[in-house]
């Protein structure tokens, strides 16, 4: 289960054009089962009104001058006590300055001064304001106090200027909130390595042998590890999805590049989850120039890539993934024993709802001397959660 489900987030929205993005964040949190209490600064209401957030969260929205809750409790005290995390997004230069200097002149800043919950600040402002030494000193003050500051994106601003100051997109904000909520989870002080995506073996500068792996399942595994408090190292091959914000990510292309990166990543780790769809073969020779149509050779000589799991052994758990198209359980059991794995997650990639490009998956988790664990068709994040629950159990037993 995601750490977002059942969590209590206070979302303090301050007055910048990026306030409209906060409505999407509130919506996505609510869809994930989070209770979201939105607090608007005075300036924020010039951009997005309370009714928008009330409709999206189905909860009371608080304004800057609200002193009491609907239950006649002191608003800043009650909200500060109930919060699992306080998220300030977008955080303007003015709001950051007030927080750094301990001002409490509206409800949101009073909550920030009162709460014992972790605080996440997402700055969003014009590039010149963000780069100004005063803003940077204020942000450093907040970091020293333990506030998590999300670096803004670089790009086009509402004014037309280019530079660093854009509020990150909602998925990035959600990843940071997940990591903050899960910081003391069951994998705290543990290191997990996850491989994801496919590999590409180039024949010439523009053509390669590969597979359609999206990387989505591996990225969800990394995200689930972060939610449980793990330091997460992600080795990511080709694919179409972005890595989670909290992962230490290394990008690779070929099987040999992935092996080299994994050898480095597993140093001192507690578990390796090998989800990547690694190609079994590569061209014996690579052309330095594009191979022309009608030219030679008509065939391509292939050689085997190394077996990455067999090459990666040590004092850590080894969990493999087996993508099969037929006799998947029988084939997987022989791999589990032959490679001396601690667990093997097997799925039938021949189905349209469980293949590489699907957004869902159904797997069976095999472990030596344990009954098979069936995970019925669900989202890839649901599969990742089930796998990480097994990893938590195995690490706890070591």
Give a description of the structure.
The longest helix is centred in the last third of the chain and has 17 residues, at 380-396. The strands form five sheets. An eight-stranded mixed sheet has the order 12-11-8-13-16-17-18-19, with helices on both faces. With 398 residues, the protein is of the alpha/beta class. It is globular. It has 13 helices and 19 strands. A hairpin with a 5-residue loop joins strand 9 and strand 10.
Q: Would you identify the regions where 5 or more consecutive residues have pLDDT less than 50?
A: none
> If you compute it from the alpha carbons, what radius of gyration comes out, rounded to the nearest whole angstrom?
24 Å
Biggest beta sheet attributes: 8 strands, mixed
How do the strands line up in the largest sheet? 12-11-8-13-16-17-18-19
Please count the beta strands (DSSP E, at least 2 residues each). Answer: 19
List keywords for this structure.
398 residues; alpha/beta; 8-stranded mixed β-sheet; 5-stranded parallel β-sheet; globular
Blueprint of the fold:
Elements: E1 8-13, H1 19-31, E2 35-40, H2 50-57, H3 75-82, E3 85-91, H4 93-100, H5 107-114, E4 119-123, H6 127-131, H7 133-144, E5 148-149, E6 153-156, E7 162-166, H8 170-181, E8 191-196, E9 201-202, E10 208-209, H9 216-227, E11 231-236, E12 248-251, H10 255-265, E13 271-274, E14 281-283, E15 302-304, H11 308-311, E16 317-324, H12 328-338, E17 343-348, E18 360-366, E19 373-379, H13 380-396
Parallel strand pairs: 1-2, 1-3, 3-4, 4-5, 8-11, 8-13, 11-12, 13-16, 16-17
Antiparallel strand pairs: 6-7, 9-10, 14-15, 17-18, 18-19
